[in-house]
Amino acid sequence: MEQASMPEKMDVSVVFPVKNRASYVRKAVSVAYKAEGVKEVIIVDGGSTDGTIREALKAKAKTIIQSKLVYPGKGVAMRDGAYYASGDIVVFLDVDIKNMAPSFVEKLAEPIMRKEAEFVKGCFEREAGRVTELVAKPLLKIFYPELANFRQPLSGEIAGLRKTFYEVEFEEGWGVDVGLLIDMHRLGRPVTEIDIGFKDHEMKPLPHLTDMAHQVADAILKRAVEDGRIDRRAAEARLRAIVERV
User: Fold this and answer.
1) Residue 17, SS3?
2) Tens of pLDDT along 107-144?
3) Mean per-residue pLDDT for 17-35?
4) What is the dihedral of CA 139, 145, 146, 150, to 10 degrees?
5) Bridge partner residues of 122 (DSSP)
6) Which CATH number fits domain 12-127+146-201: 3.40.1000.20, 3.90.550.10, 3.40.50.720, 3.40.50.2300?
């Protein structure tokens, strides 16, 4: 019987993309530092006005300002975080997870340390959101069926080898999470999904869902066009239909 490989000792950088999350930052940074293997925690701020940067500095996080202040700029923040990270593994997490725990970081990093994957998506015990069910999953099933088994393709809980993030495109906005999943797959990197347990996190308000749906669909369809899985005109028509439905 083949034994599971022992985890390799690798340094971990934890990156939190943030904007106006002062009340969450200090706890999130403190918890992240308690995770095994973490050498640094990076806060990438997207133009906060509520003291988020001050709280991040108090928590001893490496703190940088997003290189391009756009909204939504999550992808810009993630790209910047990967650039400034020095760990072998980069873990991305939402800063406003109410039940943040060191195990979130450790579970995401473990498959990489065991050389079972180079890119990991976290899934969790919560009903998937509207954009996931109505946009991301149906489009992946059609155009990237090899990724259709991912329970939460839009999860912001992500880990990857730092060097692999230099080889992919970071969508600027909400399309970044699914875009990275597809790009890592296209590069032939081993990808997997791991259950990190219960996640207590507020869902996005309804006014944001249309923009999110558009950007997620655009990220998937753009790559499907590039890969010859749909022509551009058909992709544009499908994009319009999706946004109208959400």
Assistant:
1) strand
2) 999 999 999 999 999 998 766 688 999 999 999 999 99
3) 96
4) 50
5) 194
6) 3.90.550.10
